[in-house]
Every structure is written in C-alpha cells, then in structure tokens.
Design a protein that fits this description.
The complex is a heterodimer of chains A (about 250) and B (about 325). With about 250 residues, chain A is α/β, with parallel strands linked by helices. Chain A has eight helices and twelve strands. In chain B, helix 4 runs antiparallel to helix 5 and helix 8 packs across helix 9. Chain B has a single domain, classed as Orthogonal Bundle (ABC transporter involved in vitamin B12 uptake, BtuC), CATH 1.10.3470. Classes of the chains: A alpha/beta (about 250), B mainly alpha (about 325). At the A-B interface, helix 2 and strand 8 of A face helix 9 and helix 10 of B. Chain B: It is found in: Cell membrane.
Chain lengths: ~250, ~325
C-alpha cells in the first residue's frame, strides 16, 4: 500500500449525490494530497459546489466514501468537518454582518470562562486578543476587533474569514469562489494567500470559474462537468485551452 | 471618542431611551408633578413587569429571527392551567410548574412546526394564538374556577415590598429575569448563536451552529416568560379570566420594535424591549394623569411605534456613516 507520505489527506471514493431527481454527482473519485494547492474548476452546475458542500458537511452524500488521512470519515454536519480540520470559506461569506469581528471569528467555537450544559460565559478578552492576532497573521490590518463585519469591504471580510480558518489550525482549506466580487488588488491578495498555504502545511482547494486565478496559484487542476471529474492534471501538463475544451 | 459616539448611535435602544426621557419630562410637567410621585410610580411599576416580561421573550425571539403572536394566549393558559389544577386539589407549586410546562410545550410546538415544515413563524403562531385561546376557555369549562388565593404565596409574587411599599414582588422577579436574559444574550455562547441565527442564517448554519435547536429554545423561553407574566397578573387580580392577554401579542411586538429590535432578526437588545414596554406603560399612565381622553391611548402607542422605528433607523444610519478607522 501507500506509505504515509503519499497517503492523501482527503480521498473521495465514488461519491453520488441526487437533488430531488437531479444526479448532481455521478461517482466522483478524487484525492487531495497534503500541502497541495488544487484548483477545482467547472461550469455552473458541474457539481463542484455540491462536492465541496459534502466535504464541508453542509450536505450529505447519498453514496460513496470519504477518507480523511486514511480513515473513513463521517461528515454529517459542518462541525464534523471542522473537527477533522476542514475549513471552508464560502462565496457568500460565512460572516454575520451585524456582529463584531471578534464575535464572528468564534461563532460556534466560542472560548468560555465557565459553562454549564453547553451554555457558558464568553471569554471576551481572549476573543478580542486572539482575533487581533489572527488577523495580523494573515497580513490584514484592522484596528478594532469590535468593528462590525458589515462595515468591512468584501476583501477585508474574506480576510477575516481566512484568518478564522487559519486560527483554528485547519489542515485543509476550501475556498469557494473567494475572488468573486473582489477588487483587482484584493483578488491579488487572496491569490497570494493561496500560494502561501503550502509553506504553512495547509492543503488548499480553490474553487473558481476564473481559470486565470486558478493557474496563478494552484499546482494541480481538477475539472468537473456534468457531475463527473473530466480532467485531473498538474498545472504544468495542461493549459487553459485544454481545460476549456473539456468543460 | 468618535468610535464611542458611533457605537452609541448604533445602539438599537437609543431612540426609545431618548423618547422615554422626553415623555417622562413631558408628563411630569403636564401632570403638575404628580407623574413622578411615589403613589403614581407605584402604579406604573406595579403593572409594568407583566407586560415587560412578555416583551423580553418576544424581543429575544425577534433577535433570533422569529416571531410569536401566540404570547397573548399563552399568557392566559398558564394561569388557567394552574387555577384548574388547584381547584382539583393540587398544591400551588406543582400547579404553577405544570402551567409553565404547558407553556414550554407550546413554545416547543411553535418552534418545531415552524422549522420542520419551513413555514413562517407568523403563521404558526397565528394559528397557535387561536388554538391556545380556545383551549384556555375549554379547560376552564366556560366558568373560570375561583382562585384559591390562600393557597398561593402571594408575598413572593405580587405583594408590595421594599421601602415605602414602592414596588411589588413581581418587579424583583422582573429585574432578575431581565438581567438573566440580557446576560444570556450578550455574554454567553448561546447569545452569540441567537444573534448569528437571526442575523444571517446561512452563515450560522455553515459555522455548525445548531440553528434549529437555538430557535426552538428561544420559542420556549418566550412562551414560558409569557405564561409566567400571565400567572403574575392573575395572582394580582385574583381571578383567572380566560380573556386576559388579548391584544398583548401586538403590544409586545410594538415594545420590541420601539426598543430597536428588527423584524428581520439579528438586531435588538433586551434592554430595548424593556424600555419599549415601559414607554407603553408611561404613555397609558401619563395620558390619564394629563387628563387626555383615554381613547387616544392606542393612537399614541401606534404613533410612537412608527416614530421610534424611524428615529432608530435614522440614528443608526448616522452612526454607520461616521467614518472611523477599521
């Protein structure tokens, strides 16, 4: 068998998904290896969003298996995925606009001073200091952790989402169309961030329909069409033209 | 400093607090100083908890992004359950606990139906409003039982306490509950989930918050508080009328909205809901003292609701447009 070096961090085996009669995933099998930046591309409705919703725990697969670090994984809800080290940054921002940055950083994973039956007092001082540090770590400069997320620009919000994912020590970061609605400058920053994941030992799965963005920051490209994987090659061995043909 | 002003302007309860201060001042002058006299404060503060407790629950639920129109009926069924059980020989404590459990179950049903069938809570609780009111009349058998006041520790709930007998015991219950729910909302992880669930449901779901359970919990808290408030009223007046609390659901929504809660969820504060409830009491009482025709009461509450919401959104916009470094 494979040695641990080659063992994929996530292995998707023959996964099927139906949405009320629509066969959205038709037996998808794909591996994501440690420290790899993979671009997942495809037209609208190709199944890439479905695949990542299953990995993120938002939807349940109907058939097939997912292995994380070689072990069969049951991902039934977003918490399961997070506990396995899979963090997802969504296209339509996983932030609550009328809550502060510090509150958003820790939604669902609040540090508590004391608790009783799962409900407890927030450690607000820790939330503030840790969010300031986490944001600084992704090279974003925000002065106050008390500012409302709704007041930030699209790029800043994406930055906070990335900071949150990094703070919780993810092993795999899924970025779902992170460059949508961003300015040119902010897009460059996100691409730079995906490039930097390798150095931090994080696997990146970058979903986009902008092939130029994918080619700028990924090592390998996986293309989907009609719910199937139609191409899986290192960037060096393919081209935008080839990918456009298979989509 | 600018940040402080900005944050203050965006406080949801600001407009209501300003209105309250203005109205108190106004009625104090109009009534030649009677309004803030101890005797009158006794009247205002004595009745205030009943409405304010309902407003606390409704506000919490609105922040969670849902709506409860059944609180007026739940307000009536809790004391009716208690009175009927006591008439059947139950002691007071098990009887009131049974009444509150009935309310908790109604709240659970409101939440479960809303979420399970993905229907607006406006509809679920509108239906519940009629069903629970009807049940209240049915279990009373048409003739409400006499409340055995002797068997009730009224000193614990409704009797006057404190210096100068200024307050009723119910006021102390109200203060404790108000602080507890405020803390729950602003200082705990549960409160964070409530705000996230009401503020932006997709984000809350994606972050793994059990949004269905959070909502159901809020529905249950809201119902139990309404039932408790109804029980206090019945212990005060000494008779479990099946018609108490009619129209209360809209007054409670008005209180929450006056206090800055958004109908869309995510925005609001418990303090705001309380201020809203006090405002409604103050108008009611102040108009009487100022010898205004009492038929204008509902007009005033209605006008106030609109005024407070307009004022709030104006203040919030002013706050948002203030530039501070992020």
């Amino acid at each position: 068998m494979m040695n641990s070096q080659e063992q994929p961090i996530i292995s998707v085996r023959n996964v099927h998904k139906w949405y009320s009669g629509v066969h959205a995933l038709r037996g998808v099998s794909v591996d994501f290896r440690a420290n790899e930046a993979v671009g997942l591309v495809g037209d609208n409705g190709a199944g890439k969003s479905t695949l990542i919703s299953i990995l993120a725990g938002l939807h349940a697969k109907d058939e097939g298996e997912i292995y994380v670090e070689g072990k069969l994984a049951a991902i039934d809800n977003p918490r399961d995925a997070m506990n396995l080290g899979i963090e997802t940054i969504y296209q339509y921002n996983s932030m609550v606009p009328n809550m502060s940055i510090a509150r958003n950083m820790f939604i669902g994973r609040e540090p508590l001073k004391a608790s009783f039956m799962g409900v407890g007092l927030l450690d607000e001082a820790r939330m503030r200091t840790e969010s300031v540090a986490a944001i600084a770590n992704v090279d974003l400069h925000l002065r106050s952790p008390d500012a409302l997320v709704g007041e930030l620009s699209g790029g800043q919000r994406q930055g906070v989402a990335i900071a949150r994912a990094m703070h919780f020590k993810s092993k795999v970061m899924i970025l779902d169309e992170p460059t949508n609605h961003l300015s040119v400058k902010e897009t460059a920053k996100v691409i730079g961030f995906v490039q930097s994941l390798k150095a931090q030992n994080v696997t990146g799965i970058f979903i986009s329909h902008n092939l130029h963005h994918v080619f700028a920051c990924c090592e390998r490209i996986v293309a989907m069409a009609m719910g199937e994987i139609v191409l899986d090659k290192p960037i060096a061995e393919t081209s935008i033209e080839e990918i456009l043909q298979v989509l | 400093m600018r940040r402080f002003i900005k944050i203050s302007l965006q406080k949801p309860e600001l407009a209501a607090a300003l209105l309250l201060a203005g109205l108190v001042f106004f009625f104090q002058i109009m009534s030649n100083g009677v309004f803030l006299s101890p005797a009158n404060l006794r009247g205002i503060l004595g009745l205030m908890p009943e409405m304010a407790l309902v407003a606390i629950g409704v506000t919490l639920l609105m922040i969670c992004g849902e709506f409860d129109l059944s609180v007026g009926s739940v307000f009536a069924i809790c004391p009716m359950t208690m009175a009927v059980l006591m008439a059947g020989g139950w002691p007071f404590w098990p009887a009131i606990v049974a009444g509150l459990l009935v309310c908790a179950f109604i709240g659970f049903l409101n939440g479960w139906l809303t979420i399970r069938f993905a229907i607006p809570s406006f509809i679920t609780t509108l239906g519940m409003l009629f069903m629970v009111r009807s049940l209240t009349v049915v279990i009373s058998g048409g003739f409400p039982p006499r409340l055995q006041v002797d068997a009730i520790p009224t000193w614990l709930f409704v009797e006057f306490v404190g210096p100068g007998n200024l307050l009723r015991a119910s006021f102390l219950w109200f203060v404790v509950i108000a602080m507890a729910v405020s803390l729950l909302l602003s200082k705990t992880n549960f409160g964070n989930w409530v705000r996230a669930t009401g503020g932006f449901l997709p984000a809350a779901t994606a972050m793994g918050i059990p949004t269905a359970r959070v909502k159901i919990a809020c529905f249950m808290i809201c119902s139990v508080l309404a039932g408790f408030a109804g029980s206090i009223q019945v212990m005060r007046i000494g008779s479990p009328l099946p018609s108490i609390g009619e129209g209360l659901e809209l007054a409670a929504v008005a209180a929450a909205v006056i206090g800055g809660a958004s109908l869309l969820g995510g925005i609001g504060s418990i303090m705001g809901g309380i201020i809203g409830a006090i405002l409604i009491r103050v108008i009611d009482n102040g108009m009487v003292l100022s010898q205004v025709d009492s038929n204008w009461f509902k007009f005033a509450v209605g006008a106030l609701t609109i005024l407070a919401v307009v004022g709030n959104s104006w203040l919030r916009k002013r706050g948002q447009s203030m530039k501070v470094e992020t």
